[in-house]
Amino acid sequence: NVAEAYATIRHELEAYGHGLADKPELLCLNKIDALTEEAREEARAALADISGSEVHLVSGVSGEGITPVLRKVQAHVIERRRDHDVQRADDET
Fold it and tell me: In angstroms, what CA-CA distances link 12 with 5, 18, 48, 89?
């Protein structure tokens, strides 16, 4: 059950502390090549409901869904670098 697995992982991140649970997350449901379309949607909906986040469907084997996830990661990294550069410039003035 993906919802239970997500809840367990979130609990472990909270228990570990050090702000780990507060970091940005990108949720991906992997191995979708092994699921029917109906099972994919059920798992995606369950994970989206418990997380309140967008869930990306991916397959490491077939590569399905990987490119959009990589683009999302790239956009996040670019935004974080930009924010860091602005903060550093503000600190220097």
Answer: 11, 12, 19, 37
CB contact at 8 A, 78 and 48: no
Task: Report domain extents, the chain.
Answer: 2-92
Tokens of 36: 């029917």
List of residues 6+ apart from 2 with CB closer than 8 A: 29, 43, 46, 47
Contact of 46 with 4, CB cutoff 8 Å:
no
CATH class of 2-92: alpha beta
Q: What is the mean pLDDT of each run of 10 residues along the chain (93 residues)?
A: 96 96 96 97 98 97 98 96 85 81
pTM: 0.83
Helices (H) and strands (E) in the chain, counts: 3, 2
Q: Residue 55: phi, psi to the nearest 5?
A: -120, 125
In this structure, are residues 2 and 41 in contact, taking their beta carbons and an 8 Å threshold? Answer: no
